[in-house]
Amino acid sequence: MADKMQWANALSTRPSLEAAVADVVQQAVSSLTAPADLGLVFISSAFTSEYSRLLPLLAEKLSVPVLIGCSAAGVVGRTEPGKTQEIEAEPAISLTLAYLPGVNIQAFHVVAEELPDLDSSPNAWIDLVGVPPSPVPQFILLSSAFSSGTNDLLQGLDFAYPGSVVVGGQASGGFVSDRIALFCHNRLYREGTVGLALSGDIVLETIVAQGCRPIGQPLRVTKAERNIILELDEQVPLVILRDLIGSLSEQERLLAQNSLFVGLAMNEFKPSLQQGDFLIRNLLGVDPSAGAIAIGDRVRPGQRLQFHLRDAQASAEDLELLLQEYLDNNRSESSPLAALMFSCVGRGAGLYGQPNFDSQLFKRYFHDIPIGGFFGSGEIGPVSERTFLHGYTSVFAICRQLNS
């Protein structure tokens, strides 16, 4: 039997950075019976002026070969045994440590200027990251919201590492880049992406909860240019949309004024589309004269889409549906050992009207595993085997050991 992987997480809300660091290190290290190979640290933007002190303070207390992390509008972690909390807009640090026998761990930092052209060979991306495509690596990415190139990086990794899982989020903090922090190789970065490639005796499985429910029926795009839909089912899109909104309940019509989205079907051939089959994108605007609709992604003729609504109830039902589906599909697999949660600043208490909603719902299905994570300004996760940058989403990465 393989040596057992171990994960631990700790969260501190001590307002002093020194005290918070000492707190999380002591808690997380004491939860492991073997030395940690990997650390992930997320620091609240309440500590913005002290980002440069985080790594030196950690180095005084903690010896770990690989450590990455980022700043965040809020952090997720374990405050006491069995209790996970989401701390938003207050001082907090979340530290996850892992002992990973049989796993190769490679950390990297890339900036947009270094990215190969999208028509480059897979080898250009492999050289950039410095990780072979076999055994298939699992990627965790933490990106600056101010850096261009995140979408290109996701496309490149999907291309060069088929079968890999790519998860993560965009660091958040303030509205200027010097309020963002990325940590890797004992250095503080303000831009680009820091990442981990984990290969060997490990698998990351994902739940990507985009928080929407479909309304109306699936429609086929019959005419489009870039991100502008000119025809749906050979009809004027705005006419179809007005008819759809007219058929809704009064409550849904009010919701549609601010929380109407478009779901793009990811599987061309699936006959019956369900929640989870769509990539959710913003509705950017309409052209009343032409009846066209602009959305936040490219669209092509032949593609299927469906309009969606988002609110707290839809978001909760969506996550619960995906959690149950995951359990139903993975009953024969080895037990999950840990999870990482990458959630949008637009979720949390602001959406649900109560704290800790997504993490507590997750814990109902996965009782005892440690969860660490953060609230960011974009979430990275797969939909139908392609990786996307999302909004208003919670991405959970569930870690299992392959040969346990």
Automatic annotation (TrEMBL):
<dbReference type="InterPro" id="IPR019494">
    <property type="entry name" value="FIST_C"/>
</dbReference>
<dbReference type="InterPro" id="IPR013702">
    <property type="entry name" value="FIST_domain_N"/>
</dbReference>
<dbReference type="Pfam" id="PF08495">
    <property type="entry name" value="FIST"/>
</dbReference>
<dbReference type="InterPro" id="IPR016741">
    <property type="entry name" value="UCP018953"/>
</dbReference>
<keyword id="KW-0812">Transmembrane</keyword>
<keyword id="KW-0472">Membrane</keyword>
<keyword id="KW-1133">Transmembrane helix</keyword>
<feature type="domain" description="FIST">
    <location>
        <begin position="35"/>
        <end position="236"/>
    </location>
</feature>
<keyword id="KW-1003">Cell membrane</keyword>
<protein>
    <recommendedName>
        <fullName>Histidine kinase</fullName>
    </recommendedName>
</protein>
<feature type="domain" description="FIST C-domain">
    <location>
        <begin position="237"/>
        <end position="383"/>
    </location>
</feature>
<dbReference type="GO" id="GO:0005886">
    <property type="term" value="C:plasma membrane"/>
</dbReference>
<dbReference type="Pfam" id="PF10442">
    <property type="entry name" value="FIST_C"/>
</dbReference>
